[in-house]
Design the sequence.
């Protein structure tokens, strides 16, 4: 798990064209959900293309601790023999979710309506992140939580012996909170209703329907209203995990800012609740096209083709697009530094409670490398220096945050001087093949 090991300092050198095909790993959000819902189904779920990053491996380990049989068949092929809704055993060990907010919050939801007690912990980053956003609604089901001050991990959840269904309006745009409530609702008799004012990624809703749960989604004046009927028997599924658009963002953005590049990123999930970055890049003038558009496993998929784009312009990113690209703002800010004019990113308060405070982490590293950044509580602007205009030459802190580390590695590829990070080890949480994949395209990454 990241944060427990030795830091890995890394440097990215300015490089020539990036070319070829970038086969990025499976989607992290869908991978977590496949394992968790597989563990709550009756029978064997088969998963191909699972992301074998540390975050997801920690979720696999947790599902074993709750009694599911989780088998790694090699090559991204996994099977999960589930124990059924309400069938979780009480783990006899602390559940360590490493660096993963998704892992810990979804698993808390999945166990909260069962009469078992579980203690959760994580690495130094996860143990700083807010958990009350999940334990508040879980208390409505009858679960109790005792954690550190400020609702932080380590934390013990005493699941509800007699859960009741709830109606809950999610106060922050968060698919993790929405999903935790839905997963808890699975073992509550009756209808659990979750309302979200802004649409967030909908993988849980899609996958619950796929597993045979009774779930409806309505767009109303109060927002998206999701209604789930509790105590279903979930039917095991065969799941092909699409490739992760949040990982695709790195080779795509690297190609846009590196002279002469032409990179194909095949088979990327383009669920509209996830594709905001690509829309934004196209609005900035990026030469980014969708080829071979198709549907796979109920999700829209395309091959992305990104070519060097010397004429990108700064834009105001619509605040209502934030949820559909929330993990992509760090790398977008690197592209913004290589565009002309100012890029304004508003409505992004959530960036401050990710693996790091991502506005602060990016602002520090961008400034150290010669880029002007202004920020407020829920917005930031990046002053573009034009293509190739980033001076570079400095070392950035990654704050145990994979997206920060990878974003600065991308920045180095198009900068005037190399860019370094103090610790690239968190990259393994979501994109374990980042270094060989980028090197295969022509990037020059070095471990110090
Ligand atoms: O549900 C999910 O799989 C995720 C939801 C998002 O978090 P929030 O729910 O905190 O916005 C996102 O940042 C995270 O990487 C994955
Ligand atoms: C925010 C992220 O993940 P998590 O919340 O699962 O730690 C991310 O992957 O960018």
Sequence:
């Amino acid at each position: 798990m990241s944060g427990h090991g030795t830091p890995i300092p890394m440097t990215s050198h300015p490089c020539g064209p990036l070319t070829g095909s970038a086969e990025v790993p499976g989607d992290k959000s869908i991978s977590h959900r496949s394992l968790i819902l597989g563990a709550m189904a009756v029978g064997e779920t088969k998963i191909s293309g699972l992301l074998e990053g540390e975050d997801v491996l920690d979720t696999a380990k947790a599902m074993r601790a709750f009694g599911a049989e989780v088998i790694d068949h090699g090559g991204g092929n996994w099977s999960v023999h589930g124990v059924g809704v309400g069938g979780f055993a009480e783990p006899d060990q602390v559940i360590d979710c490493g660096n993963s907010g998704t892992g810990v919050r979804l698993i808390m939801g999945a166990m909260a309506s069962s009469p078992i007690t579980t203690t959760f912990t994580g690495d130094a980053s996860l143990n700083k992140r807010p958990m009350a956003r999940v334990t508040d609604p879980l208390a409505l089901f009858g679960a109790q939580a005792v954690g550190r001050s400020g609702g932080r991990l380590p934390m013990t959840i005493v699941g509800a012996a007699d859960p009741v269904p709830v109606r809950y309006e999610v106060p922050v745009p968060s698919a993790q909170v929405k999903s935790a409530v839905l997963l808890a609702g699975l073992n509550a008799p009756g209808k659990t209703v979750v309302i979200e004012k802004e649409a967030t990624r909908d993988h849980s809703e899609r996958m619950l329907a796929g597993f045979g749960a009774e779930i409806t989604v309505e767009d109303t004046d109060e927002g998206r209203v999701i209604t789930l009927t509790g105590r279903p028997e979930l039917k095991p599924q065969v799941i092909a995990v699409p490739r992760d658009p949040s990982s695709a963002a790195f080779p795509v953005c690297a190609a846009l800012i590196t002279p002469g590049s032409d990179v194909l990123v095949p088979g990327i999930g383009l669920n509209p609740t996830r594709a905001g970055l690509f829309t934004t890049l196209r609005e900035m003038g990026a030469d980014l096209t969708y080829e071979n558009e198709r549907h796979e496993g109920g999700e829209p998929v395309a091959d992305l083709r990104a070519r060097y784009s010397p004429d990108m312009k700064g834009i105001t990113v619509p605040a209502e697009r934030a949820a559909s690209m929330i993990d992509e703002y760090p790398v977008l800010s690197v592209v913004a530094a290589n565009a002309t004019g100012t890029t304004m990113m508003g409505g992004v308060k959530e960036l401050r409670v990710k693996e790091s405070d991502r506005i602060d982490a990016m602002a520090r590293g961008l400034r150290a490398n010669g880029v002007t950044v202004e920020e407020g509580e829920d917005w930031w602007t990046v002053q573009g220096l034009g293509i190739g205009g980033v001076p570079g030459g400095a070392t950035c802190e990654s704050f145990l945050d994979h997206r920060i580390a990878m974003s600065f590695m991308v920045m180095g590829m198009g900068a005037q001087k190399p860019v370094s990070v103090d610790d690239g080890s968190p990259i393994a949480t979501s994109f374990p093949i980042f270094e060989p994949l980028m090197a295969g395209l022509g990037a020059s990454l070095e471990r110090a």
About this structure: The mean pLDDT is 97. The pocket of shikimate-3-phosphate (ligand 1) is lined by residues 29, 101-102, 174-176, 179, 201, 326-327, 350 (CB under 6 Å).
